[in-house]
Amino acid sequence: MIPMRLFVNKVQGKIDRNLYGHFSQHLGRCIHEGIWVGKDSHIPNTDGIRNDVIEALRKVGVPVLRWPGGCFADEYHWKDGIGPTDRRARMINNNWGGVVEDNHFGTHEFLRLCELIEAEPYISGNVGSGTVQEMQEWVEYMTRDGESTMANWRKQNGRELPWKIKYFGVGNENRGCSGNMRPEYYADLYRIYQTYVRNYDGNETYRIACGPNEDNYHWTEVLMREASKYMDGLSLHYYTIPTGDWSDKGYATGFDEQGWFETLKRTLRMDTLIVQHSKIMDVYDPKKKVGLIIDEWGTWYNVEPGTNPGFLYQQNTLRDALVAGINLNLFNKYSDRVRMANIAQVVNVLQALILTEGEKMLLTPTYHVFDMYKGHQDADRLLLDYESPDYTYGQESIPQISASASKDNEGMIHLTACNLNHIESATIQCVIDGGSFTIVSGRVLTDRVLDAHNTFESPERLRPTTLNRAELHEGILTFTLPPASVSVLELR
Ligand code: AHR
């Protein structure tokens, strides 16, 4: 029995809804086929955007959606993606498979998607191969009301009112695919570019600077030292790779117990990365004005055999569900500094929530975790005291339990818990301190097979079921987490 204590009246801060954010890139079949099928498609759509995907994304609650990249963003020239679709310039997608990008899904289409799913747009601007003027004009085009060259052009293209664009990234991975810059050089560029990301007509932009990859603490140090007073957010990218070797990352399915353990061990590194980058940020920004924006995270495997290596298409199993559950609990834990996170990517790419094949669509285990956790969005994080037993495999140990709790504005408590151990269940006895509650629901996502996943033949193989044996008596909540599982309990 694992003792736990939940303090209902000890609020630790607010969990920003944007921690449950997403990322869409012109990469493989994310935009084309996954989201955008065009108005003339036989696949049911609204203004060219798949209806089944709209419905799934509305249901899961997407607070914020990042676009158009990724590495693609710093080769993207927004003017190619506006106006009549048949007259839009075509380009080569040099980063992802060298395929032709027809630019039919551009600014208007992306912002229409955001309206349909009620998500805040997060636009990544082009620093690597774009000019200051190009970035300035994009912001003006989207957000300027009244008379201006760009605003008039937007109106000619059918959009009278400006959009509200809160989140704007000034470049993506300019330390790598988008310019191979030194931090000192990028910091200076950032200061220039962000100056021209102007606030027009009441639009208030939250400017996000390109941050470090993984443990590149030097990058964080330089950016914070040289440019923190000009930024609202600094990004961090960290992908979970089972082998730790980019040349052979391991596959999404068919892994063994070691592949399970190693993956979860590596994903837990997110804890250290957040803590260490935050320490540096604290030196330059003790009031925590600048948010850590983890705008790319998730698993990255070898692509599915037979698929285009540049398309990053991978299956999604129970292991991915654990990766999602663990990371989301961590983001909750550090919500004082982490203000946004965007899993990569929303459809058909890397740790996707949704997979499509022609007119078919399925929801992955990762989707179900986001659905189970959505009660945390904008809720008050509660103090949850517990000491996890070790989960040992071979010579190594990691914590067996990852958990988080919050109270939403209707007084409902959401307790999410992962059992990382692939063999042993975990029975938890949680004292509820500070109120009298009853269990409203308990759901669990689990399977005896570690690489259980959904396919187009069997799309519902893995989905949440009722968490049995959860009881609440005299202020003590007792529940058992099956091996290899993600659960959520709701109390009122
Ligand atoms: O998400 C895939 C790629 O990973 C992104 O385009 C890039 O920013 C990162 O390296």
Automatic annotation (TrEMBL):
Does the keyword section mention Heme?
A: no
What is its EC class? hydrolase
Look up the EC number in the record and give it.
Answer: 3.2.1.55
Cite the Alpha-L-arabinofuranosidase C-terminal domain residue spans from the record. Answer: 295-485
Catalyses which reaction(s): Hydrolysis of terminal non-reducing alpha-L-arabinofuranoside residues in alpha-L-arabinosides
**Record key words, sorted:** Carbohydrate metabolism, Glycosidase, Hydrolase
SMART domains (alphabetical): Alpha-L-AF_C
**Keyword Signal: yes or no?**
no
Pathway info:
Glycan metabolism
Q: How does it assemble?
A: Homohexamer; trimer of dimers.
What does the similarity note say? Belongs to the glycosyl hydrolase 51 family.
**What's the protein name?**
non-reducing end alpha-L-arabinofuranosidase
In its UniProt entry, the species of origin is given as Paenibacillus aurantiacus
**What is the phylogenetic placement of the source species in the record?**
Bacteria, Bacillati, Bacillota, Bacilli, Bacillales
